[in-house]
Design a protein that fits this description.
Layout lengths: L1 E6 L3 H9 L4 E10 L8 E8 L6 H10 L16 E4 L2 H14 L10 E4 L2 E4 L7 H4 L4 H17 L12
Parallel strand pairs: 4-5
Antiparallel strand pairs: 1-3, 1-4, 2-3, 2-6
Helix pairs in contact: 1-5, 2-3
């Protein structure tokens, strides 16, 4: 089992997106820090996945399309657009994926490839937020559109409904 950490928008949204994917075995919601200028914690998830079922490049592509990966907005410290890597090989693969995928976006991607340093899990009552609260206004407004995009654009990557943590 491989793992990669992803940050971009609200970790409730990011968690819900990755939980829908075939090959993803577990999604840990919380806060991730890297090093130096990016050592502060930012909302993110750790995605545990089977690389034989879904590739890292597919996960990165889905991540870029399901958060504001071209927007350098004022909340980027809290919602850092990032791919946090655990190995040198992952780092290199993630950087190559970003270069290749840039042509699919009109604006420059702001997503950074950063080394993973630390993780703090969210409080238990926030984990699996969407699956516990699909009717909440936040879920309807922010998460449902991301899941609709997944269905339209990445339907072949979607899993049968399952329970992830």
């Amino acid at each position: 089992m491989d793992k990669i950490a992803m940050g971009g928008g609200c970790h409730w949204c990011t968690e819900a997106v990755f939980q829908e994917l075939n090959g993803v075995q577990k999604v840990e919601q919380g806060f991730v820090a890297s090093n130096e200028k990016t050592s502060s914690f930012s909302e993110a998830v750790i995605v545990h996945f089977d690389n034989n079922v879904i590739s890292l490049s597919d996960l990165i592509k889905i991540h870029l399309y399901t958060h504001r990966s071209t927007s350098n907005h004022s909340m980027r410290d809290k919602y850092r657009s990032a791919i946090y890597t655990f190995t040198f090989e992952q780092h290199r693969e993630a950087e190559n994926a970003l270069k290749q995928l840039q042509s699919e976006f009109q604006l420059p991607l702001v997503t950074k490839v950063l080394p993973f340093s630390q993780f703090k899990p969210s409080a238990e009552h926030f984990r699996n937020y969407y699956s516990k609260n699909p009717e909440k206004p936040f879920c309807k407004r922010y998460i449902d559109p991301k899941l609709e995009l997944l269905q339209k654009r990445f339907s072949k990557k979607l899993a049968d409904k399952k329970s992830l943590s």
